[in-house]
Amino acid sequence: MQQLTAHARSFENRCAERGEEFRRLGAGQSPQALFVTCSDSRVVPALITGAAPGDLFELRTAGNIVPEYRPERPAGEAATIEYAVQVLGVEHIVVCGHSHCGAVGALVRGEDLTGVPAVRGWLESSAPELSGPGADGGTPELADAVQRHALAQAERLRSYPCVAEGLAAGRLSLDVWFYEVHTGAVRRHRSETGRFESL
C-alpha cells in the first residue's frame, strides 16, 4: 500500500506536466467506449488498450457479469450502461472476459461458495448458464468457459433497451474480447466464423 500511496501523493505534480490535457478533462468527458470487464486486479483496461484518461467508461463486476435488465429494480450496473449509452453517447461497447477467472472457475467447477453468500448469490443469479461441471473446468485458463460466458453477457446487454436501440440504429457497436492474463494476448469474437481470433 505504501507504493500506491506514494504514487498518489506525487500524481498531482506529474499531472501538472500535462496541464492542458487534464484541464480538458475538467470540462467533461466523452469516452469512446464502454468497457465491461471483471473486477480482477490482473485486468487493467487502460493497460490493455493504451487508453488515455477519458477514453474508456468502465463497468467492472465480479466475473464481468451484466445482470438482467429490470427497470423496476434499479442497479448500479444498469445505470452505468444506460448513462454510457444515453448520456455520454459512447459508440462502442466491449465485453472483455479473461483467462484464469475465479468467478467462472467457481461456477464451472461447482465450488462451495457458502462462505461468501453475496458472491454465491451474484454468480448463481447472474450466470446460471455456467453452473455445474464444464468441459475445461479443470484447466486454469478456462478459455472455453470464459469465452462462452463473455458471449452470454454480450447477449444480455442486447436486451437493454438503450443498447438494442443503438445497435439497431447503427450508432453503437458491440464486441466481445478474451484477454489472456498469462500472455497478454487479446482475441475478438468474429461472428462470421463463430471463433475468437486475434485482433
UniProtKB/TrEMBL annotation:
Keywords assigned? Lyase, Metal-binding, Zinc
List required co-factors.
Answer: Zn(2+)
Where, by residue number, does Zn(2+) bind? C38, D40, H98, C101
User: Can you provide one Gene Ontology molecular function annotated for this UniProt record?
Assistant: zinc ion binding
Origin organism is Streptomyces nigrescens
Concerning Gene3D superfamilies, the annotation shows: Carbonic anhydrase
Question: Does ATP-binding appear among the keywords?
Answer: no
What's the protein here called?
Carbonic anhydrase
User: Biological process GO annotation list?
Assistant: carbon utilization
**What's the catalysed reaction?**
hydrogencarbonate + H(+) = CO2 + H2O
Q: How is the cofactor bound?
A: Binds 1 zinc ion per subunit.
Q: What does this protein do?
A: Catalyzes the reversible hydration of carbon dioxide to form bicarbonate. Reversible hydration of carbon dioxide.
